[in-house]
């Protein structure tokens, strides 16, 4: 299994990239978010990867973060969802939107992805709704001096993935956050306040 590839980006086109690692060009199919976060051609890049081995083919799929790769792995664990389908789902919507739709059991978001029918979308929700933990998919934030603001940002991501309106999530997070609170503590307090 190849966990990640680090090398020089040589080409990017139509959902595929080529990364030069010591003179060997790895062709990798990537998500739209991965494509959007790539450096310029001929610059160094690190891509998290999943290697699929079939009888007649070996394929590499690439992701912008370990969290995106983890969600991809959850998707392909669903009966009837292959690697290419999972990549299409991840490319069609933001990961937080997809996670929120699974948690809220809203199959319409996934069903709107190209090549995904209503039955497949419902099966994804049934098989993943109890396995998805929002904190496992918080995307790494850029380093910031103010730890509190970073925790608030992370808390807002989790709250919105749970279906809370973004402005309301920000208001709730700021309202309950205390100095040095972690994102988990802020979310717990916000959810408690919402229940009262």
Polypeptide structure, described:
The protein has 196 residues and is an alpha+beta fold. The protein has 3 domains: 4-63, Nucleic acid-binding proteins (OB fold (Dihydrolipoamide Acetyltransferase, E2P), Beta Barrel); 66-134, DNA polymerase, domain 1; 141-195, Orthogonal Bundle (Helicase, Ruva Protein, domain 3). Helices cover 46% and strands 21% of the residues. A 5-stranded mixed barrel has the order 1-2-3-5-4. The chain is globular, with a radius of gyration of 18 Å.
Short description:
46% of the residues lie in helices and 21% in strands. It has 196 residues and is of the alpha+beta class.
Supply database-style keywords.
3 domains, 196 residues, alpha+beta, 9 helices, OB fold (Dihydrolipoamide Acetyltransferase, E2P), globular, single chain, Helicase, Ruva Protein, domain 3, DNA polymerase, domain 1
Task: Spell out the blueprint of helices and strands.
Layout: E1 4-13, E2 16-21, E3 24-30, H1 32-36, E4 44-54, E5 57-63, H2 66-76, H3 83-92, H4 95-103, H5 107-111, H6 118-128, H7 147-161, H8 166-176, H9 183-195
């Amino acid at each position: 299994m190849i966990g990640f590839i680090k090398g020089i980006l040589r080409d990017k086109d139509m959902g595929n990239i080529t990364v030069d690692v010591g003179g060997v060009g790895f062709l990798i199919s990537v998500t739209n978010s991965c494509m959007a976060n790539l450096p310029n051609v001929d610059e160094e890049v690190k891509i998290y990867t999943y290697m699929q081995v079939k009888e007649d083919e070996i394929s590499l799929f690439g992701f912008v973060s370990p969290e995106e790769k983890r969600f991809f792995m959850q998707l392909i664990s669903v009966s009837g969802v292959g690697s290419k389908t999972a990549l299409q789902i991840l490319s069609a919507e933001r990961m937080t939107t997809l996670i929120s739709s699974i948690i809220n059991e809203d199959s319409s978001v996934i069903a709107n992805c190209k090549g995904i029918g209503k039955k497949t979308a419902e099966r994804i929700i049934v098989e993943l709704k109890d396995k998805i933990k929002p904190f496992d998919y918080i995307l790494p934030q850029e380093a910031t001096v103010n730890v509190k603001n970073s925790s608030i940002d992370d808390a807002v991501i989790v709250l919105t993935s749970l279906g809370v309106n973004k402005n309301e999530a920000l208001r709730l997070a700021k309202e309950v956050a205390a100095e040095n609170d972690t994102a988990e503590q802020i979310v717990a307090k916000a959810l408690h306040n919402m229940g009262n």
